[in-house]
Amino acid sequence: MSSVLLGYDIGVMSGAAIYIQEDFKISDVKVEILVGIISLYATIGAAAAGRTSDLFGRRYTMALSAGFFFFGAILMGFAPNYGLLMAGRFVAGIGVGYSSLIASVYTTEVSPASFRGCLSSFPEVFLNFGILLGYISNYAFSKLPIQLGWRFMLGIGLVPSVFLAALVILVMPESPRWLVMQGRLGEAKQVLIRTSDTIEESLQRLDDIKTAVGISASCEEDVVEIRKQTGSGVWKEFLHPTPAVRHILIAAVGVHFFQEASGTNAAVLYSPRIFEKAGISSSDQKLLATVAVGVVKTAFILVATILFDRVGRRPLILMSLGGMIVSLITLGVGLTIIERSQEEGTWVVGLCVSMVLMDVAFFSMGIGPMSYVSSELFPLKLRAQGMSLGMVVNNVTGGIVSMTFLSLYRAITIGGAFFVYAAIAMVGWVFFYVVFPETRGHNLEDVERLFGNLLWKFSHTLDAEESSENA
């Protein structure tokens, strides 16, 4: 539900912005700011969420994010002018920051190793489902009068926030790893029994967590000291990292940067504009094509859900970026043909639409859900605030892409903009090929051991791949 809220906000604004611009008579620059600013606002929530979740727990942090979404939706739905609409975007943006961090951290910490990749990609599954709901909402309310349609599109987002709050209160257990850090070992044991395949596995997971936190098997008085240190010293470790932590930071921040810098926000948030440039003039057809984007994103994330624990993280990321590079270059070529020749033939329109769909499909199969799965890279003490740092990078990069797309394509043509995104995706492919180790099948407490000596790990990964191919 947390990710549905986040996805709905992303998807619904792509269509609502068209009607807001017409209703409030605002410029394209103000539309860019309105659409993209939420990612920058989200950095505030993401920066605060790591510390909040360490102090008060993962559950209550998620409930707090639902509250921000609820009040943000009310403000946006009833906004009489652009200023109050931006205030609603600010409140909702804080919720986005909290939600995007805590969903991934909680899911990673509660999942057994055998299904962690699958379950950790679920936030991206439901984010895409939320985007699809946003697109459907655009189409459903587009027939209403302009001043009412976009208000319903934005305001109805309060419904999922109520469901989220109810789920947190009635259903969700607290993260067992957070409970151990608080010294609540009995509660942690009960949660692990509920979320492990066997009793033996739950006990082993508990012992591993206690070891990672620093609680010895025979001296649980260590708990008092651990509780005092919870959340402290984290930024000191980031500023003066060990080789393993430095490698983890490079890999995790790289995931968040390249996920957004490769232009996915441009394809999702401005898909109606892209389809218009491709030659689709009817508002209904543009919105229907946008719904198709949501359907494809949602369908292909399910592929990643199945394959993360079977194929592995690294191969899916490389395949994902490789497919995006091809689709972005081809989309840039198609849009350039239309712009230079003024040709609106069916084949070139179909090419552009299919390349947008191909781009979001490959994004959803690898690099998209990896931003959530990346929480597994950090050791327990650093996880919440490490993901907070990653989400700040994610939101700032996504905000820059969202707020510059219209200006960028006016400066270097819309085809040129997608060539830029393709070039960034190429750099990302090389980055992951060199830097990213395989973490599939490892317990969270063991993942840190995969990082450290970057060159050795790279050669080790190549040797492992070669052995696998020979086998």
**Using only CA atoms, what is the Rg?**
22 Å
Global outline: globular
Provide the helix percentage. Answer: over 70%
State mean pLDDT (0 to 100 scale).
81
Gross CATH architecture: Up-down Bundle
As a percent range, the share of strand residues is under 5%
Q: Briefly note the CATH topology name.
A: Growth Hormone, Chain: A
Number of domains: 1
- Summed up, the helix count is 24
Uncertain residue segments? 455-463
CATH superfamily membership, which one? MFS general substrate transporter like domains
Tell me the structural class.
mainly alpha
Total number of β-strand segments?
Answer: 0
Domain Major facilitator superfamily (MFS) profile: 1-440
Family: Belongs to the major facilitator superfamily. Sugar transporter (TC 2.A.1.1) family.
GO molecular function: symporter activity
Subcellular location: Membrane
Description:
- With 471 residues, this protein is mainly α.
- The protein has a single domain, classed as Growth Hormone, Chain: A.
- Helices cover 82% and strands 0% of the residues.
- It has 24 helices and no strands.
- The two termini are 42 Å apart.
- Keywords: Membrane, Sugar transport, Symport, Transmembrane, Transmembrane helix, Transport.
- It holds the Pfam family Sugar_tr.
- Its main location: membrane.
Task: Provide a short characterization of the protein structure.
By secondary structure, the chain is mostly helical. The protein has a single domain (about 1-175, about 235-470), classed as Up-down Bundle (Growth Hormone, Chain: A), CATH 1.20.1250.20.
